[in-house]
Amino acid sequence: MPTYQIIRQIVRTGIKTEAPPLPDEALRAGPQRLQEDILRAFGGALSIRQVDAGSCNACELEIRALNNAYYNIEGLGIKFVASPRHADMLLVTGPVSRHMVIALKRAYDAMPEPKLVVAVGDCGCDGGIFGSNGADGADESYASCGKVSNVIPVDVVVSGCPPTPTAILQGILTAIGVQKT
Amino acid sequence: MPITHPNLHLTRLDGAIPVWLGGIKPDDLPPICQNVADGGGRLLALWGSDERFPLPNPLPQAGEGANESLRDSQISGFALHVALVNEAGLICLSMALDAVQPVYPDISRIFPAASRMQRAAYDLLGIFAHEGHDHRKWIRHGAWHGFPLRKDFKTYPHLNPLPPAGEEANVHSPAENGMKSNEIEPDDYPFVQVEGQGVHEIPVGPIHAGTIEPGHFRFSVVGEKVLRLEERLGYTHKGIEKRFESLTLQQGAKLAGRVSGDSTVAYAWAYAMAAESIAAVIPPARARWLRALFLERERIANHLGDLGDLGNDVALSFGFAQFWILKEQVLRNNAALFGHRYLMDKIVPGGVAADLTEAGKLREEGAMLEREVRVLRGIYEEHAGMQDRFIAAGRVEPKLAAQLGLCGMAGRASAQAWDARVQFACAPYDKLDVRMATYRNGDVAARVIVRFDELFESLRLQREILDHLAHDGELAIPLEKLPGNGFGVGMVEGWRGEVLVAIHTDAQGNLTRVHPHDPSWQNWPVVEHAIMGNIVPDFPLINKSFNLSYSGQDL
């Protein structure tokens, strides 16, 4: 009987969820753009649209891991949504390939104001090993625009290759400026 | 000799796996491919290189008679390289192409998987498959002009700033370099249209609903039933192959480990194998055992994650919760023991960059995983709702799989009995006796069974590897630079399938051409067939059961 086995396994597994990290203002890429009271509203429930703008997929693995029982991001009131129309935050991994520029901008434009952007991973922060040809003047790649902020405004950057789920969660919590306990 | 043909002289390369090399004339390519196909062989990879300059011969000093046709004319033109495989080993064919009209005969009639590779070779290098049936662009969407892999292609000396967010993209002004336009051209890709009463199209992507990589799918459907799926990939193209050419051997190893993040170990090993083949270097025994340990742990982590996702896709979120707890424990052990959750940069040319000091922890983990996965497998197999969704969904019959060249884990679920760890068991697999998991049904259920079998087999291999790792030893021998004019190939059975990396060096031993090849090249076109006749809501499930790489094929 799978139902009995499922319940038995759930009980045996117990609760794995760990305490989330504290926000870190050092991760902020620019001054706080949103007013305190709006951020408090986000703090209650945040919807994230994730966009892979050209990553190697390792950052996506770590973002997916946020949904596992250890990080339990939904338990914090943060969920990933399918449409940018439903999103408060764009969580972008890079580097931004030139083929993804239009799609990324459209996703950003489709979001309702106020909106937040968190760039995830070394490539999203500075183009990473792939190089870039972006507004920062680099001319190493014909196909990559480098960091996310070359294409859309960014509030918080999370470095790492890939950053750990804890680091990504910390970046998200920093962007909304709340402490979750 | 893996094959014989009157115009083909093969030379064996040094290295961990059996690779033969031969120079041929382009006209001999189709008959030789046919010969390999008739013997049950497959196409592994196809790539080109620019040899128009007084650049060195990309081929090693092969035996007499070999490569003459290539050497005679290669200074003046391009070269095409085709990697085939049969039971005896890899066969790398190289042929010189004209500098002005670089054309070669189409081989997609023999190996359908060649079609997209040929289109990509044109997009990147401007070499053209004569009489190919599909000449639409593949990798190039219009974000650049010219052929980036040509040596005279330059990234723009000066870039205009990107347009402010909110405006329609009008990116960069490549005034130099003979570029015609300063705009990303509208992507008017000519999808194949399906006509008939009640047929409509569902376009999906490039941004998908979940946290996954970008790509575009065009479904032609009647009601819920999918008549046809056409894929459009290339969105994550970030110029990896060109980027290799400006990197050192060591930097290249890091880049190779980021072609597809979920297969970083497989790529790093294949890259190291190719480099070691050129340098005629054999890594120390302990390094070889650790490489296999890393590769099996990569397979374990990915299979655990995907088995959880497959539960999620049929609304059994219990499966996701359980398997991702197990995956997280594997990743945390990787971080604690080797310093990286996905083992990135732990395989380097010449050896490995991490040692194992606490084997006991892995033994404990392995025993725990075997226990837990056995319980979960029992639940998956007895769960009627789950099996109802799995069985007969996304079926690829063995005959179709053979025709299209389906490879790797998905291939084995459709009776394609290829596993590089078995057929070309390089050290340490020659001492491990890997048991290949195969199944005939070719549906989602079969791919789930193969994943479970491979998971248990990898756990068994991990145990055996730990037994062999008892003694200390060297971790790496220094490999700073490669010899000049070298060519080497590495191939590793990653969790998804065979990962191949080919390296060419110039006279100074610098990387002049590196081609990483993902098994997703072969398997993406098969997904178009697997979905036919299924319903649209089953696509995420079917797609996940293959779980192919976008970044690995977009490069």
* Overall strand count of chain A: 5
Helix content of chain B: 25-40%
Kindly report the average pLDDT value of chain A.
Answer: 87
Kindly report the spatial arrangement of strands forming the biggest sheet of chain B. Answer: 1-2-5-4-3
Order of helices and strands of chain A: HHEHEEHEHEH
Roughly what is the average pLDDT of chain B, rounded to an integer? 88
Q: In whole angstroms, how far apart are the ends of chain B?
A: 33 Å
The helix tally of chain A amounts to 6
Radius of gyration of chain A: 17 Å
β-strand percent of chain A reads 5-15%
Structural class of chain B: alpha+beta
Query: How many strand elements of chain B?
Result: 15
Radius of gyration of chain B: 23 Å
Largest interface: A-B, 64 and 72 residues
Question: Can you put this structure into words, describing what you see?
Answer:
The complex is a heterodimer of chains A (181) and B (555). In chain A, helix 5 links the parallel strand 4 and strand 5. Chain A is globular. Chain A has six helices and five strands, in the order H-H-E-H-E-E-H-E-H-E-H. Chain A is α/β, with parallel strands linked by helices and 181 residues long. Chain B is an alpha+beta fold and 555 residues long. In chain B, 37% of the residues lie in helices and 16% in strands. In chain B, strands 1-2-5-4-3 form a five-stranded mixed β-sheet. In chain B, strands 8-9-10 form a three-stranded antiparallel β-sheet. A three-stranded antiparallel β-sheet of chain B has the order 13-14-15. In chain B, strand 4 and strand 5 form a beta hairpin. The longest helix of chain B has 29 residues, at 285-313. Chain B is globular. The chains are: A alpha/beta (181), B alpha+beta (555). Chains A and B meet through helix 1, strand 1, helix 3 and helix 4 of A and helix 4, helix 5, helix 8 and helix 9 of B.
